[in-house]
Design goal:
The protein has 4 helices and no strands. It is found in: Cytoplasm; Mitochondrion intermembrane space.
Amino acid sequence: MSTVAAASCDAKGAGEAREEKKPLKPCCACPETKKARDACIIEKGEENCGHLIEAHKECMRALGFKI
């Protein structure tokens, strides 16, 4: 990921009104569940992390992403 893209995902609170006009990008949605899912997959393998994968999918769906 480029530093510009990373910076745009990390910049929170700086422009709440501006952020509402732009649609949320999938890379920036649900950072808590994404981090837990990714760590589990790296450490234990995808087949052992189904519950975290599903939790991340549910979070993404709740934000309006079609997964």
